Amino acid sequence: MSFLQSLRRGARFAVACLGLGALGACTTIGPSPWEKDLMARKEMQVSAYAPLKAADNHVYFSKEASSGGSGFAGGGCGCN
Amino acid sequence: MQLRKRRKGSVREQIAALSAGLLAVSGIPAAAQDNPYAPVSGVQDNNFGPGAAYSELDAALLVYQEAGGRVQAIEPSANLAVHGAHGETFSLGLIADAVSGATPNGAVPSDQVQTFLTPVMLSGGHATVTGASGGSTIISLPGIPAVRQYTAAANTLPMDKGFHDHRGAIDFNWSQPLGHISDVGFGGGFSREQDYQAISGNAHIAQNFNGDNTTLSLTLNTELDSSFPFGGVPAPLTVMSGALKSPSTRDKTQLGFVVGLTEVVSRRWLLQFNYSFDSQSGYQNDPYRIISVVDATSGEPTANLYENRPNHRQSQSLFLDNKFDFDPFVTDISLRYFKDDWGITSKTAELSERINLGRSFFIEPDVRWYQQSAANFFHYFLNGSDPLPAFASSDTRLGKFSSLTYGMKVGFNLTGRTELDLRGMYYQQTGDGHPADAIGQLRQQNLFAGTKAAFVFLEYTWNFH
Amino acid sequence: MCRRCDSDKNDELRQCLVRTCVRLFDTNRTGEPIRMTLKQATRLILLIAVASVSIAVNPAGAADLDLSAYKGKVVYLDFWASWCNPCRQSFPWMNELQQRYGANGLVVLAVNVDHDRADAEDFLRSYDPSFKVVFDPGGSIAQQYNLKDMPTSVLIGRDGKVHFVHNGFYPDQEMAYAGHVWSLLQQGRNP
């Protein structure tokens, strides 16, 4: 389909989404469940390499004034 | 061999026959072979992840060494995480560390030799040996408690070389989904060393939305610290001495929370945003650290006073992390902004680039840049002709400096269920050692006591059922 | 992409082609053949070319799932991927399911959504299924069934309608899954 048509289609979809969003019937923001292959990898996990991050934080905390930083939850493949 | 109907003559059938043969040779008991729910024989079960019940053991070692004979530390740790099939996780961690070496005591360098006195740690009875103990001398005279004396050569940064400490810590965590809530959990920790103890607790709740692409989390954390330095807690801004002091212990309490948002923005982009708030009340001084009072004209140190920091500290930080996966490159960019009511603001930026070379090996160079401003009570020294301030500290940790860390990590996926990672880092702090307000002989001295250090980290991960 | 009917689905493309051809070469109500201009002819040729390429690039069974061959049977349509851990537990169980109920009219169809075929094939080498595997790297079949989770199993009855959808795979619910399959198998048989 032409660029204009796809633009129109996208706009219609977005408007429908905003409307349906209120009803919770909209599709999700972000990748679909079958598009989470890369998120399943260890290097993309928020909680991976925890001992290494803890050691880093320990060194920086004892030499610098700042603290605080990364969290632990979220991401991943969302399986099950 | 499993008796199953297969499409005649299929490649799959041949592979099955081959693997059954391998199985027979390997001596795996018949019961496992006949179980229809078991995967095909001869293949490792690499089922580690959501939906599987498995355990993960991490053994790690950190070796840290500062330049110039300063602090060195060895820190082995072990962590066991047990995962249930429905998202429950229990983890238990143990850490030990041994720290030794010289550490700046907070005094300024002088063109004269300086002598410092500090209480000695007695282990049952008086120390009667007079001799070097990590560069210090223990002086014991009849009728007077032993004191430790050490000196700093002219034009060198005064260091306490008799510094050594052992620490042991344990921590645990439990988390699980609960009803409609994606994750709830709590944890605690206990850490003890020769002159410090910390007891901590935390609780968290997290909720997934948007088809598991969005996660909101809230963590509450609290800590009770006790400081019981050798020779007792010195009265702030009093003259450094070897005398025994009281009280023997001072405490500090901490309360804070972290609000986090994790978002899978696209197939390749994971974003994390955290806001942290922290409030600390109580004793926050370093009981061994001193600050020099210098003569207003010559700049020669005339007295060494124990430092003093405010009793309250409130801080906030914003953290943003982005991970991008463009196979085989995985880029991680993170930024942090920190601000507290001691006048310290800091900025951190870190970039790492993981390059997967095949399935079993990767390298990951990274660089971290950090910059902080000084606390409003930070001084390199105190001018003898000025009135004594309420708070003063010369601890580099509270001063103005920037730092750079260069690192390289390499990882080996050994068998699909084990991984070995090795990381080398070089850390360097840079600051202005020649401040404009330096007096007399201090103008010839480098007042910055920042660190250069190299550290190596080794981690072995093992997944098993 | 078909300009005329705004679709990239192969079955609709085919129908669109047929309709176009019929319209062009059929007679109108008065019996006179409809004339085609050069513009229309070019459009038709382009349409056939695009449709053919689309069909060739996405052969039926990859971007399209034609279940008409299984009419009268119960279809256990499972969506899986090599990166999906619960799938490692579901495969041996689905093998068992196919073995046990194949004769009763159960067909297990496993749709793979891996981007990289090599990853899927590695997985298949380990788990060696006895059921049919369909490859959907573009995710269009997954889109068609509007998956909310990975893995997802869609249970289609003998009437060709979706009766159950299982989001995720939990070994402690295998009895319940098997119960659903059995209840669908019990519903009348078509000749």
Describe this structure in words.
The complex is a heterotrimer of chains A (80), B (465) and C (191). By secondary structure, chain A is mainly alpha-helical. Chain A has a domain of 27 residues. The relative contact order of chain A is 0.12. About 8% of the residues of chain A have low confidence. Chain B has 2 domains: 43 residues, no CATH class; 361 residues, monomeric porin ompg (Porin, Beta Barrel), CATH 2.40.160.40. Chain C has 2 domains: 48 residues, no CATH class; 119 residues, Glutaredoxin (3-Layer(aba) Sandwich). In chain C, helix 4 links the parallel strand 2 and strand 3. Classes of the chains: A mainly alpha (80), B mainly beta (465), C alpha/beta (191). Chains B and C meet through helix 1 of B and helix 3 and helix 4 of C.
List descriptors:
heterotrimer; A: 80 residues; mainly alpha; B: 465 residues; mainly beta; Porin; 2 domains; 16-stranded antiparallel beta barrel; three-stranded antiparallel beta sheet; 2 helices; 22 strands; disordered N terminus
- Strand percentage of chain A: under 5%
- Major sheet of chain B: 16 strands, antiparallel, barrel
SSE succession of chain A:
HH
Q: What's the story with the biggest beta sheet of chain A?
A: none
Helix and strand string of chain B, N-terminal first? HHEEEEEEEEEEEEEEEEEEEEEE
Describe the oligomeric state of these chains in a short phrase: heterotrimer
CATH architecture of the largest domain in chain B: Beta Barrel
Alpha-beta content class of chain B? mainly beta
Q: What structural class do the secondary elements of chain A suggest?
A: mainly alpha
Interface with most residues: A-B, 45 and 75 residues
The CATH topology assignment of the largest domain in chain B is Porin
Radius of gyration of chain B: 28 Å
Q: How many beta strands in the DSSP annotation of chain A?
A: 0
- Straight-line distance between termini of chain B: 24 Å
